[in-house]
Amino acid sequence: GKKDFNLTVSLTLSNTGSVVGSEDVQVYVSMSTTSLLTHVPLSLRAFKKVHDLKPGEKRKIEIVLDKYAVSYWEERIKAWVIDQGEYGVHVGTSSVNLPLSTKFTLGREDVFEWNGL
User: Fold this and answer.
1) DSSP 3-state assignment of 98?
2) 56-83 CB burial, b ≥16 within 10 A, e <16
3) Residue 39 — pLDDT band, cuts 50, 70, 90?
4) What is the pTM (predicted TM-score) of this model?
């Protein structure tokens, strides 16, 4: 069957200020350590704009990462590739403000390549 990948990132965003605010929640993925030699360590893979959060309001946010979030284009074989290994997920408002992080591991059975969409 066709392989796929989905990972849901869940977090609670709270407005600690005194005015209504909107925020960009950004999800960065650092590629598996086995790929560090050839890939950018941290890439923006998903984001969500959260609108009109009232002062003191907390809102649960869910952002789904798909197979493109953990893959890279391998020119030599003309295909998208997912490597096994440990990945980092980093969440914040910009690349220099990523207060939340977690990790997940892809095993040999999770690894696949594909062409096209």
Assistant:
1) coil
2) eeeeeeebebeeebbbbeeeeeeebbbb
3) low
4) 0.84
Amino acid at 117: L
User: Exposed/middle/buried for 21, CB within 10 Å: 0-12, 13-18, 19+?
Assistant: middle
CB-hemisphere CA count at 13 Å for 3? 14
Q: Are 32 and 89 in contact (CB under 8 A)?
A: no
Per-residue pLDDT reduced to its tens digit, 67-115: 989 888 888 999 888 888 889 999 999 989 999 999 999 888 888 888 8
Mean pLDDT of 29-48: 76
Using DSSP, state whether 115 is helix, strand or coil. coil
Coil, helix or strand at residue 2: coil
